[in-house]
Structure formats: structure tokens, C-alpha cells
User: Fold NF-kappa-B inhibitor-interacting Ras-like protein from Megaselia scalaris.
Amino acid sequence: MLTTKQSKSAKVLLCGMKNVGKTCLIEQLIYGNVTLETKYNPTIEDIYIASVDTGKSPRESLRIFDTAGIQGKAEYPKHYHQFPDAYILVYDPQDPASLDMLADIKSDIDRNKEKKEAVIIVLANVHSNVPDSGIDSHKANNWCAREKIKHYTVNAMERASLYEPFVSLTIRLHPAQSKSTFTQFSKVMQKTKSD
Assistant:
């Protein structure tokens, strides 16, 4: 009977303020059909499955949970923190409030997450090539450095800009297994027995 190695699907929760482009990022990454004319209804909740090529075989799987954006002092429900292996925090560099909200979301994650080793990355979703009039990029980079979070700048209209953060996240969630030293030891034992 032929069997294929079934890889475990990592669960990723996508978080951020309303209207920062969370759904647009995922739709562009998976389907590649997002244009400037694409219209989205506000997300309530959605699940995407992405098969990511990390250069290893087989392709690794990510189950991405797209959530409704939050506003004000709202928090994500506690049950959202029970399952994720990773969190992707998204903000809009043109809106300083969206970065400030990430600090609240991050503290909420630290308070409630079930898996202590959960990976967190931050995506700055740049909507255009217009010079930043919102957030100084140093503020975002300094906050990420203090929190020990990897920061990426992406553009939802440019699919290629999304590859690096998601491949890097997938590699962190599915690390290469190191070879056991027991096999080398058993070969040495067999060699000494035959001598």
C-alpha cells in the first residue's frame, strides 16, 4: 500500500483593526486575483487553507483563520486564543491607530494564549506608493524589536511581497527535523561487531 507523508496543518490567526486589508492580503496570497477594483464586505469569520512551498518536500499546510477587525477597546474572544500555533498582526501604515491597536492585541494574546511557543509576526499593509503620511516606520520597527516580533512591509496588490513573510512563518511552524544520533550510533555498533 502506498502512503504519503501527511504534514500537520498549522493554525494561524489573522488579527488587526477593521479596514487594514487582512482579507485582501489572504485572498491575494492564495488566489492572486485581487485588484484595486475588488470590493469586500466586512469579514465576520473565514477560514483559508494555504499550501506553502518552503523548498522542502512535501508542501506545508497553513489553516488561516481570518477574523473580523476590531475597533476601540474591543478584544478578541478568549476562544480565539485556544487553537493558534501562530498569529499574524496586520496594520495600515497610513493609520497610526491601527499600530496602537496591535499593542493592545499583543498584550491580549500574551494574557490569553494557550500555546506559550506561539509565533507572532507583524505585517504593514502598504496600500500605495504614496510617501507615508501616517506612521513613522521607526516607531513600528522599534515596537517590534522590543516585543521580539518579526516585522514585514507588504503590499496586498503585489503578490510577490507576500511570499517572504508566509514562507518564513511556515518554516518556523514546521522546522526541519534533525537526524537522530541513534542511527549513527547503531551503524558504529554494527561495524565494531563485524570486526
Notes: The first strand starts at residue 10 and ends at 16. DSSP finds five helices and six strands in the chain. Strands lie at 10-16, 45-52, 60-67, 86-91, 119-125, 150-154. The radius of gyration is 20 Å.
